[in-house]
């Protein structure tokens, strides 16, 4: 029998040692660079310093970041970074990073990590990811299913929500797909152009498998792009705290 333990740490309590472990997990398990990246075939790497700079913005009255880990029998098996900020009187909770160790995938750990992030005061959840499994995990954790995602909500609200983000790569992402530009012929329905040229072979295999079970609503993914999922929280109530 294995023991799974989830732990959430507020950004200001995240130590350099935690980030070194997070950087190792990411660099060994996230994925490899794709054809147009200039580093094709090499592992995508992240340092502890970049994790802090890019994913743990300093807390303010309206911004708080979080680091969530799952250990299996004491071993770091997966983690997620998230940031909450205010937009138009609402609390946005955005998953900024998510990775599960290769040996522990398809056991519900990503879903468990995102479920641990959920708060009753959240109004909106968001994630950008090239991996359909991350989108499935987010939809389920935040109270819906991928087939019930409102593309209309994403079309109307994503721009304002993302422009208000304290995280530069979210703020600077260019919205792409037929919900934003009906004339788009790339096959993408809801996504962002982040010029993140990670290899899509693995996400492509996941997509094929996912399409056997689900009506996948976000379309096909061109190189350098990620899927975009923005959804309303299920149990909404007026919130003053983040
Ligand atoms: C994406 C990732 C985090 C998913 O982690 P995981 O722990 O395997 O995810 P879960 O077990 O919670 O699965 C979530 C859903 O995706 C499905 N899924 C996961 N892997 C799948 C696969 N290879 N093929 C088909 N479906 C898959 C699961 O069945 C589950 O759906 P369900 O709830 O309908 O059963 C993991 O694959 C990973 O770290 N990939 C590399 C990094 C990455 O792409 N991160 C996302 C960037 S934000």
Task: Write structural notes for this entry.
There is one protein chain. The protein is α+β, with helices and mostly antiparallel strands. The protein has one domain (4-232): Gcn5-related N-acetyltransferase (GNAT) (Aminopeptidase, 3-Layer(aba) Sandwich). The protein contains seven helices and eight strands. The chain has helices at 16-29, 48-55, 109-117, 132-141, 151-163, 168-171, 201-213; strands at residues 4-10, 63-72, 75-87, 90-100, 124-129, 174-176, 191-193, 225-232. Strands 1-2-3-4-5-8-7-6 form an eight-stranded mixed β-sheet. The protein is globular and about 50 Å long. Coenzyme A binds next to strand 4, helix 3, helix 4 and helix 7. Residues 9-174 form the N-acetyltransferase domain. One of its GO terms (molecular function) is acyltransferase activity, transferring groups other than amino-acyl groups. This is N-acetyltransferase domain-containing protein.
């Amino acid at each position: 029998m294995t023991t799974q333990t989830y732990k959430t740490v507020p950004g200001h309590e995240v130590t350099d040692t935690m980030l070194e472990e997070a950087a190792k997990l990411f660099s060994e398990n996230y994925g490899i660079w794709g054809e147009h990246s200039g580093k094709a075939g090499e592992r995508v790497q992240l340092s502890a310093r970049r994790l802090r700079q890019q994913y743990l913005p300093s807390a303010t009255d309206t911004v708080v970041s979080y680091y969530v880990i799952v250990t299996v029998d004491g071993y770091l098996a997966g983690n997620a970074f998230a940031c909450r900020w205010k937009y138009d009187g609402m609390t946005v909770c955005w998953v900024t990073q998510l990775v599960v160790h290769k040996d522990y995938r398809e056991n519900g750990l990503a879903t468990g990590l995102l479920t641990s992030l959920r708060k009753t005061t959240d109004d909106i959840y968001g994630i950008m990811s090239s991996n359909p499994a991350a989108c499935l995990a987010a939809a389920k954790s935040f109270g819906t299913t991928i087939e019930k995602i409102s593309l209309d909500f994403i079309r109307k609200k994503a721009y304002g929500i993302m422009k208000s983000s304290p995280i530069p790569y979210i703020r600077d992402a260019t919205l792409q797909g037929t919900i934003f530009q009906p004339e788009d012929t790339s096959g993408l329905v809801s996504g962002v152009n982040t010029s993140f040229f990670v290899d899509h072979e693995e996400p492509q295999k996941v997509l094929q498998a996912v399409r056997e079970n689900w009506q996948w609503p976000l379309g096909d993914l061109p190189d350098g792009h990620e899927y975009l999922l923005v959804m309303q929280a299920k149990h909404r109530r007026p919130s003053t705290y983040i």
